[in-house]
């Protein structure tokens, strides 16, 4: 069983584009049992979903008008429903041989700053929320795509952002710290009562992208009992930062190994970013997941370790967070 921390299949479904990475007809053969399916409101054309060579410095996108964000998020919710997948509100709903979806909101632009609609989204099945993407909103500020660079790029959470973290804790919604700048990360870490989660981020010590987590951030996630979903986006894996498909899948193993050694095997998982990123040609999509598992075994991870990486760590955090 493989549970994945992040994919953008909903975006491609909404755009009526052919999927690049998540072909659900191949799920059973790949042992793919679903995971976090993101609703994400695009602004300007994507930056890191196409090949790019380092160094690069892509500024934050402009803040989105809330009315536009609400409209698109609701359209994507309908696209999410059209996939016909079971929507998880309990970790027990993940079973072998079936794809189950966690409804995830990547960037909180569609939410009312007073949070009057958060319960409505919860009733729709929302169980995971990323405060930001690569732009500002009324809650927090994301990191720009920059290599090399530090994630310490701007101010922390706003008052509305603090209230959003607290409200997610009250409802039992996962607060995703991926894309959040470092000050915002520490603000959220000081507020939340749940395990810290970064659904699709890597180790900054191995790849000095703003999108990756410093050792101190990794340590905090481990201490909290949380999880880092290792992102398969090659630009966040490679030491040179180049965002090119001609990258060995062992780069994924390198980050998994580093995080497991630093904070423990209980705190690392997969967070592929399928259908929203450039991934290794050796992976290609969900059909490449068994090859990654084999590479982990070749690197010395035993059967119990691999079970934790592929699904048990995610299930544990969901059980500890969801109501």
From TrEMBL:
Gene Ontology BP, a term: proteolysis
InterPro entries listed in its UniProt record: Dipep_AS, Metal_Hydrolase, Pept_M19
Sample GO molecular function, one term: metallodipeptidase activity
Pfam family, one: Peptidase_M19
Protein name: Unannotated protein
Organism: freshwater metagenome
